[in-house]
Write a structure and sequence with these properties.
Elements (H helix, E strand, L loop, with lengths): L1 H8 L3 E10 L2 E9 L2 H22 L7 H6 L5 E3 L2 H16 L8 H14 L5 H11 L4 E3 L4 E4 L8 H17 L4 E8 L2 E6 L3 E6 L10 E7 L3 E6 L4 E4 L2 E4 L15 E6 L2 H14 L1 H9 L5 E5 L5 E3 L11
Antiparallel strand pairs: 1-2, 2-6, 3-5, 4-5, 6-7, 7-10, 8-9, 10-13, 11-12, 13-14, 14-15
Length: 319
Amino acid sequence: MLRSLTSLIRPAYRLHNVYERLLGTEVELQVVARTRQQAEAAECAALDELDRLSAVFNRFDPGSELSRWLTRPGERVPLSPELRTVLALADGWRDVTGGAFHPGADALGQLWQQAASRDQQPDATELSALLRQLQTDPWTLHADGTATLHVTYPLGLNALAKGWIVDRMAELVWNSPGVQAVLINAGGDLRTMGGRELKVTVAGPFTARDDAAPLTHVHVQNGALASSGSAHRGVQVGGQWRSHLLDPRSGQPVRDVPGVTVTAPNCATADALATALSVLGAVEGLALVNSTLDCAALIVTRDGQTHPSALWPPDGPAR
């Protein structure tokens, strides 16, 4: 009887590890379970799922399913359910944002990287030609599980796939025996299930310094958070710093919104919204997030003003 009582009141086991294996991004994994064995089993399942899905979506791996599909434009190719799901999500976000979210932004990024290497603006004729291509559907998903790629310019799904993979990992861990809570953080794309609410620091978008004062804080519980900003990444062209975030409608680097933080029910939605809001600007962006179920955002414009959505739940007043 005493042995049984001891097992009932034994504290939960907490596992906390960091890896560098999600599409080039560091991954933090925390699991709380009844026993160490259960936590480690859940962790192994999550890492196996990460490896499996990376083999689908890693465009830097020429052997990934995405990379192989991108070499076969014009062909009707059978795709895995995972790749089809993310392509369908990308279609939805491209439609609802009027093209502000677009997998073809990677092609624009390549154009601006080449411009930076020459320290001059992208060729206007080349940019215009690419923008015309971005206005057409990049692929068609067929009802029989196949898909036809229509374009030859570079495509990237990281702005959506990374969050989607985080969701799959978190859900797999959460449904593992004995698990009481899970947190996965992939380079700022964060998902929690179970446990207490998490207080997340929102960094200001005008400095890359880690010791800078935070903009504000937000609590996340049984949900997701993603941020987008230009402080850490970009290119130098003509003596000016240009954001790595590009507007697929104009081909120009984003200037008006240097920082966005989004909370959402899942990481894929938070990830896509963070990218889209950076491009859309404060007015259109707030309209979009306010119309998206159970989502909230804090948009920072280049004049330093903060623009909270209707459901934004800051810990204290944003500056």
